[in-house]
Design a protein that fits this description.
- The chain has helices at 2-17, 35-51, 67-82, 101-119, 130-142, 146-150, 169-178, 195-210, 215-244, 257-260, 265-280, 288-299, 408-414, 419-424, 463-476; strands spanning 26-30, 54-61, 86-91, 123-125, 156-157, 160-161, 245-248, 252-256, 304-308, 312-317, 320-325, 338-340, 346-349, 352-359, 374-378, 386-389, 396-397, 406-407, 427-429, 434-437, 441-442, 455-462.
- The chain has 3 domains: 2-127 and 163-211, HUPs (Rossmann fold, 3-Layer(aba) Sandwich); 225-325, 2-Layer Sandwich (Uridine Diphospho-n-acetylenolpyruvylglucosamine Reductase, domain 3); 338-475, no CATH class.
- The strands form 5 sheets. The chain has a 6-stranded mixed beta sheet with strand order 3-2-1-4-6-5, with helices on both faces. Strands 7-8-11-10-9 form a 5-stranded antiparallel beta sheet. Strands 12-16-19-20-21 form a 5-stranded antiparallel beta sheet, with no helix packed on it.
- It is built from 15 helices and 22 strands.
- The chain is α+β, with helices and mostly antiparallel strands.
- Helices cover 42% and strands 20% of the residues.
Length: 477
């Protein structure tokens, strides 16, 4: 009886300390029928009345052990019914696929996600204990997860909680025995087909025998401190990322490589992983090997394309590093040239917002070279109607500051403008020649001089960036 009370007191203190559940929470409990999940469900059942918890047990029958899997399912359903605990059973069908740890985990969390939506679940409780924490740290470290791997299982990660992390396997078994409860022993846990089992059954016992008998305790005790270090580094990396992020929209993230290389490599790892997660939907499968491939590409000359898991791609183009999802960046046919018959205050073209204004003099605080999306031109040298379009083969102009014409293609190459960006650049012409390559340079022949009487100001802005800024301003109000 004392062991039972001690366990429950420690369990309740821990969930209170970590604020894992609120009163009246609807809790989904992953219930395999093993010792850990049986202890977890039983402990929550004992606290159900005090905290008015609504419990839903979910068991997944993977059908990996034939008749034994079905017998366990029946025992689990009987266990729940005898305590008036609602239970759902899901069935895994590999459909010819090779069964591995990843697709089992994916199926499990897909089930949880769907059930959470259907039953308006507040939190998910899983029965990982102190030994699982040590295994996870070693497993992720060996897979190249760096400090994030060393941080191990988090007590709370979004909706997922792990209330048994401070408990040893011995404490859990002692509690079940004090409660006079039976549990299912998964014989497959003794087999070393999966990597996790090899760590549990071979590696950790060897370390315990030959290096440190308290290996599980030591590793699991270090995890919370490493989690805090991980969070600090992640926060620092995201702050630094803002200084190197040149473009951020629904299509891609573009980083400035020279500025990026000024950041410590450890923080670059966090930046890459964060952007990978933004595109893939999860940072789960970004490892040290992916980081090393990106770093190698940055050090080499020339352009590169890299494929990461989940169809995430990187392109190194001159001084830019672009993250994007396969299928998101598609080459579309550019809009047809648009004719501007007379001075217009505002109009849209191919995702750009274009503003035009006739001035008598230049703004006092203007700087002709700071904002490349604004052009000041000699109005009286322009021959209407004007045309806005994208570049065409053979385009030439006289870049501001030069005396002779230059092919637009060579101009882009000299400035190391990425190929995708060249295709998006706007080209403004009158009836005779190009007078402005949008976001780059005006033509010298149309530049404002002391003899200029009337000035045309043109401003261009990507519509999606304008909307993003407007949304940001609304948030600040």
């Amino acid at each position: 009886m004392k062991k039972e009370i001690d366990f429950l007191v420690k369990f309740e203190d821990y969930i209170e300390e970590q604020r894992l559940f609120k009163p009246k929470s609807r809790i989904l409990v992953g219930f395999s029928g093993g010792a850990d999940s049986t202890a977890l469900l039983t402990a929550l059942f004992h606290l159900r009345t005090k905290y008015q918890f609504h419990l839903l047990a979910v068991h997944i029958n993977y059908h990996l052990r034939g008749e034994n899997s079905d017998l366990e399912e029946k025992a689990i359903v009987k266990f729940c019914f005898s305590r008036n605990i609602a239970v759902l059973v899901e069935h895994f069908d590999p459909a010819g696929e090779k069964v591995n740890e990843n697709n089992l985990r994916q199926f499990r969390f897909n089930c949880f996600r769907r059930i959470c939506q259907s039953y308006k679940i507040d939190m998910i409780a899983l029965g990982h204990n102190r030994s699982d924490q040590a295994e996870t740290v070693l497993y992720r470290l060996l897979r190249g997860s760096l400090l994030t791997g060393l941080a191990g299982i988090r007590v709370r990660n979004g909706m997922v909680t792990h209330p048994l992390l401070p408990f040893s396997r011995h404490e859990i078994v002692s509690y079940l025995e004090a409660e006079n409860l039976k549990w299912c022993e998964d014989i497959s846990n003794q087999e070393n087909e999966f990597t996790r089992n090899k760590l549990r059954n071979v590696a950790i016992p060897w370390i315990s025998e030959h290096i440190n008998p308290r290996v599980i305790e030591k590793i699991s005790a270090a995890a919370p401190l490493l989690q805090e270090a991980d969070e600090i580094l992640c926060s620092s990396a995201l702050m630094r990322m803002r200084s190197v992020l040149e473009d951020n929209n629904e299509e891609a993230f573009i980083l400035n490589i020279p500025e990026l290389l000024k950041i410590r490599s450890l923080l670059r790892f966090y930046i890459y992983r964060h952007l990978f997660g933004e595109i893939a939907g999860s940072e789960q499968d970004f490892y040290q090997s992916n980081f090393e491939v990106i770093e190698e590409a940055l050090q080499r000359k020339g352009n590169r394309q890299i494929q990461l898991p989940h169809k995430v791609y990187l392109e190194k183009v001159y001084d830019n590093l672009k993250f994007y999802k396969q299928g998101i960046i598609e080459q579309k046919e550019p809009d047809s040239p648009h004719e501007i018959p007379s001075l217009r205050s505002r109009f849209a073209y191919d995702g750009w917002r274009i503003s035009m204004k006739k001035l008598k003099k230049l703004p006092v605080d203007r700087d002709l070279f700071v904002d490349k999306n604004i052009a000041y031109l000699d109005f009286d040298k322009l021959v209407f109607p004007l045309i806005v379009r994208h570049r065409e083969a053979g385009d030439r102009f006289v870049p501001f500051g030069m005396k002779h014409s230059k092919k637009l293609k060579d101009f882009f190459i000299d400035l190391k403008v990425p190929v995708p960006e060249r295709k998006q650049n706007l080209v403004f012409t009158d009836q005779e020649q190009i007078f402005w390559v949008g976001s780059q340079r005006i033509d010298q022949r149309y530049a404002v001089s002391e003899e200029t009487v009337n000035i045309l100001m043109i401003k261009i802005e990507k519509i999606r960036q304008r909307k993003a800024r407007a949304a940001e301003r609304m948030k600040r109000r």
